Amino acid sequence: MFDISVTDDGDVFLSGRFDATQVERAREDLGRINSSCRIHFEDLDYIASAGLGVLLSVQKRLSNNGDSLTLVGLNNHIREVFKIAGFDQVFKIE
Amino acid sequence: MKIGRFVVISWRSTSDTPAGRPGANRLIHMHRSFERDVAALENIFHFTDEFASANKIGKSATFAMNLAIEELFTNIVKYSADSGNDISIHLDIAGNDLVIKITDFDVERFDITEWSKVDVDRSLEERKVGGIGLHLVRNMVDKITYEYEARTACITLVKHLEDLNV
Question: Do B125 and A63 touch (CB under 8 A)?
Fold first, then answer.
């Protein structure tokens, strides 16, 4: 199960499995982000290229206004996926 | 939603268990067919999780297995949409190797091993959304082979399990 929640201060929390079946929902929810924010991965178990693509789209859109996403709490497997994809160079990862 | 058209399973006794993964009887072979639809991923993950649990496959290899299957399955659904046939997935343990076979019937040749490499050093502005899936697969398994005969395509992935530590 995949879920996205947003706190009052704008932090975004992802949980579960971010696979290709969740792209439309993620595009809709993450499409509402319009300024720099932190996306928490602590409860996200899995991500594949479909999920990476959604995050990249948001990052590209935000960069037009000088804003960006900061990704925090990635588990080792997801961190490795970002590294292999070279996404550790286009996202700030804490 | 349909889970799959048919299932084949085989069990092997602990005497054949590779070193480092002792346990009860292992489910060494599973085979299931899935609808040509991205929505089938949920059932595919149930299938792979069942296999990983039965064989005590670690989280790292399970993650790699799920990612590789998702990337290839969604690729097949996207680029061979005209075929009405189900897509077959075999999971095997051969020695200390996890072997994944994805078979697609009555399709055109589409050799994923011939795809050009992705430049992962491009800047954000130069990056394209999409196209990274096969690059991930190449880097998360140890061997990929593609066979095509009589309009049947078979992709075989091998992941060495002795490297697992989680």
Answer: yes
- CATH fold of A2-93: Transcription Regulator spoIIAA (3.30.750)
- ipTM field: 0.94
pLDDT confidence tier of residue B101, bands split at 50, 70 and 90: very high
Q: What is the pLDDT of residues A56-89, one digit of tens each?
A: 999 999 999 999 999 999 999 999 999 999 999 9
| Contact residues, chain A, for B59 at CB < 8 Å | 77
**How many other CB atoms are found less than 10 A from the CB of residue A35?**
10
Nearest to B23 by CA among B14, B15, B36: B14
Selection from A7, A69, A83, A8 nearest residue A39 by Cα: A69
Assign residue A85 a region (left: φ > 0; alpha: ψ between -120 and 50; beta: otherwise). alpha
What residue of B is the nearest CA neighbor of A20?
B38
Q: Which CATH architecture has domain B7-15+22-160?
A: 2-Layer Sandwich (3.30)
Mutation to test the A interface, candidates B74, B132, B138, B159, most A Cβ within 10 Å: B132
